[in-house]
Amino acid sequence: VQLVESGGGLVQAGGSLRLSCAWSGIQTTNYRPGWYRQAPGQQRELVAQFMHGGTVVYSNSVKGRFTISVDNLKDTVDLQMNSLKPEDTGVYYCHAISAPYEFWGQGTQVTVSS
Fold this sequence. Notes:
Elements: E1 2-6, E2 9-12, E3 17-24, E4 32-38, E5 45-50, E6 56-58, E7 66-71, E8 76-81, E9 90-98, E10 101-104, E11 108-113
Parallel strand pairs: 2-11
Antiparallel strand pairs: 1-3, 3-8, 4-5, 4-9, 5-6, 7-8, 9-10, 9-11
């Protein structure tokens, strides 16, 4: 199983980035996708996560600015990030879960300059 993120980089505050995660070995129809992030010196935290039934939970800090989407034909999961802030800086991880199994990508760096 592999989850491979792409699309990270350096952007100015107020800008946008789109992260993508390509899944192999598992299918987006069988696992619930999500995105997490980890800022320097901080614990990994939820950004967006599909729940049972298809609803999405967003962190309060990104609600209204970030959107998670899934392409079940391509087995890809994207995270559109708008109105980026310096506090959005961190390593962003793709996540897949179908209890008791879960998988993580290797992470992609997002840096937002002020």
